[in-house]
Amino acid sequence: MLEIILIPALKDNYIWLGINRELAEVFIVDPGEAAPVLAYLREHSLKPIAILVTHKHWDHTGGIEELVSRYPDLQVYAHALENVSSVTHHVKDGEVFKLSMWPEPFTVIHIPGHTLGHVAYYAKPLLFSGDTLFCAGCGRVFEGTAEQMLASLERLAALPDDTQVYCGHEYTQNNLRFAVQVEPENADIAKRYEAVVNLRSSGKPAVPSDMRLERLTNPFLRCKQNVAKFRELREWKDRF
């Protein structure tokens, strides 16, 4: 009776819904726009109880105010550094909280780099990683430093193999096209790239992945605490 579904939004964003069908209740992760979420809730007679915000960028927060206006009891979780509107709970690193409709508690992981207050939400085995860890890639370093971003990625990479990575954008095919250039001899990357090309050509998402696959095929998780290497890769990817 538990399900994670994606709602495509904007150009290439994914809004995630965690659904308890028995209770007809939902949590929402990073609603960049409200309309497709509201349509899904109406169609399936679901009630949202919480919004989990990974970071402040408009394509992850643009739908919050309208959702809260429609559902005034919504609880909104975000880090204080992100200055997100309508927040009811300012989360911090290591905080654990429970949503009544979901069996596993959520652990907050503060992962600065993309923004200074970026967080991930981990409810074993689910990881909502926003724009820090992408499938086969990572986010741009906007507010933080390369050192912070690499440390944040390594924290996420330390999670168990079966961790399911639910990121904020469908960048997987392009990320793997880059990864092939970085590690042309890596058979795991080549195999994953072919599989993702087939998925995307069929109109299917390439998200989520799992942490075991990320460690094998994501070049940004293979820097092994080498900040100079990470910075070089990130600058290369910015130009790619």
Please describe what this structure looks like.
The chain has one domain: 4-Layer Sandwich (Metallo-beta-lactamase, Chain A). 33% of the residues lie in helices and 26% in strands. The protein has helices spanning 35-44, 58-61, 64-70, 146-157, 172-182, 187-201, 211-217, 227-239; strands at 2-9, 13-20, 25-29, 47-52, 75-79, 89-91, 96-97, 106-110, 119-123, 126-130, 133-134, 137-138, 164-167, 209-210. It has a six-stranded mixed beta sheet, with helices on one face. It has a six-stranded mixed beta sheet with strand order 7-8-9-10-13-14. Strands 11-12 form a two-stranded antiparallel sheet. Helix 5 (172-182) runs antiparallel to helix 6 (187-201). The longest helix is centred in the C-terminal third of the chain and has 15 residues, at 187-201. The radius of gyration is 17 Å and the shape is globular. The N and C termini lie far apart (42 Å). The mean pLDDT is 97.
Top keywords for this entry?
240 residues, alpha/beta, six-stranded mixed sheet, 8 helices, 14 strands, 33% helix, globular
Summarize this entry quickly:
The chain has helices at residues 35-44, 58-61, 64-70, 146-157, 172-182, 187-201, 211-217, 227-239, and strands spanning 2-9, 13-20, 25-29, 47-52, 75-79, 89-91, 96-97, 106-110, 119-123, 126-130, 133-134, 137-138, 164-167, 209-210. It has 240 residues and is of the alpha/beta class. A six-stranded mixed β-sheet has the order 1-2-3-4-5-6, with helices on one face. A six-stranded mixed β-sheet has the order 7-8-9-10-13-14.
